[in-house]
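Handout, section B. The chain below has 471 residues.
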Amino acid sequence: MRHVAKDVGTAKSGEGGGGGLLAQLRNPPGGRNARIMLLAQGLDRTGSGLWAASSVLYFTFVTHLSAHQIGVLLGVAGAAGVLGSPLAGFLAGRFRVRPLLIGCHLLRLVTLCLLLVCTGFGVLLAVVAVTCVGDRAAKTLEMLFATRVAGDRRAVYQALFRSAANAGYALGAAVAAIGLAVGTRDAYRALILGNALSFAVAAVLVWRTGEPRDAGAEVARHGEPGNAHDDGPEGATSAGRPPVRRANPWRDPGYLRFVLLDIPMNLDDSILNVGLPLWLVDRTSAPHALVPAFLFLNTVLVVLLQMSISARAEGPRPATRAVLVYGVTVLVCCAAVAVAPGCGSWGAAAVLLAAALLVTLAELMRSVSSWELAVLLAPRDARAAYLGVAGVSQSVQKSAGPPLLTGVVMAAGPVGWLVLGGAVAGLAVVQRSACARRLGIQPSTPRPSGAPEAADGRGRPEPVTARSGES
């Protein structure tokens, strides 16, 4: 346990910001492997920024799809993406994460190149759906890689990743703006090739990394070597132990409840990208030129603040507390959006900018707490499968969140926003309570300053692992 305390102290000192973001990126948790992976993820997101900024216009002006067809295509692709996370978790429980991630990059490379030669709606529908499955699977595999390479400092790694990813995404969107300004078919195709190239380079970089062969090293750091299980093919164990049947997340009511409640805990994404722009255009007289400022503000704040926010939401107790902060922040954001139409042009602009700031702060809290809790609540010997199921919440939100906002919340007017904020805040209380019970956190029990958050130092208490089906 002394080693655990030392690791925790090291993590905290590394997060303190003394070295700065660039220093942390040069020497991230996990060393060389993490550094290469962060570079690969940054390039991946740069390509994603190229495609996200140009995809709708590409389908409109190059493949000549109607607005209805584009909506169906993107909706079906989003629904197909829900399969990506559990599929990745299932495969990662049986094969190495590294080759699976390389396969996801190469799959997306092939499907994007197919877009250049496909024009029929049916074929495009299948190609985009497979691309979306690869996207979601890749994100889950990246999370699994981080839990194995960064170990106890996975929250620091997550903060570095989000900073690098947002910077890459912004760079990709800026480069896409040049192509969109040119506006020719060749310019659109060049943007697709740029995204495909990012996947190719990311695959090469991932190939250069190494990966721990099992999770036993992480468990051993918690002083529990007897519970170390190999993360290779199912049934393999260390020290010649007999095969152990791993927990099944689909038969774990407590974890499924966490995943279900985590869906509304991801609504900040739809609020920022769908709710705020449409509300500004449809219900206020604020300048339309303000819409790009929402994404710009979000990107800059994530790059600047993710490290400091992550340092305050790492570990069981801070992670559960962050869920409550998320709910309150979304509630205040929704209240600001509700009053914006009655504030005049510039008043509405100021209020909506404040709402964008609040939803960004909520995103910063959620990005750490959701991931940290997804890891802590999962049995160590079945994390791949469990994290694959946890990834479903983001995929479902991306598919269901926009229709919820446009068809229900905005249709109900300001009252709809207030109800949404209240619902998210209430569900955050339920989520926090459920996670605290499963993690064995006793709110009334004070924790000495500097002491580990849980019985095993960084993970959840051992009795929870033994009762992985606990509801």
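Note. Residues 312 and 318 are 7 Å apart (CA to CA). Compare this with the example in section A.
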